[in-house]
Amino acid sequence: MSRQRSMEVIQASEFVTIGELARLTATRYSTLKFYTEEGMLPFEQAEENLTRRYRREETVERIFRIKQLRSEGMSIPEIKAKLMTES
What is the mean pLDDT of the chain? Predict the structure, then answer.
């Protein structure tokens, strides 16, 4: 079992795991996994252990953007289209 990194370390890191994103954004792990599988959260694959790594700053911003669009009543397909035009 691996040890959790402290929030200070996470907030200073360029890359974070999906679990760390869940902690940073107060979003359920399963929700983030769904967004990833839908192509809404870009990630890089670390070769050595096949762990998905997310760029902390841009991914946190994108998660908050998705939450904002959801609160405005947009569906997942609508959000995906909106994110594509914003990129």
Answer: 92
Per-residue pLDDT at 87: 75
Report whether 73 contacts 82 (CB < 8 A): no
3-state DSSP assignment of residue 48: coil
Assigned token pair, 36: 């990833």
Angle in degrees, CA 83, 84, 87, rounded to 5: 85
| Long-range CB contact pairs, 50-55, < 8 A, 24+ | 51/17, 52/17, 52/18, 53/15, 53/16, 53/17, 54/15, 54/16, 54/17, 54/18, 54/21, 55/14, 55/15
Residue 79 in tokens: 């959000």
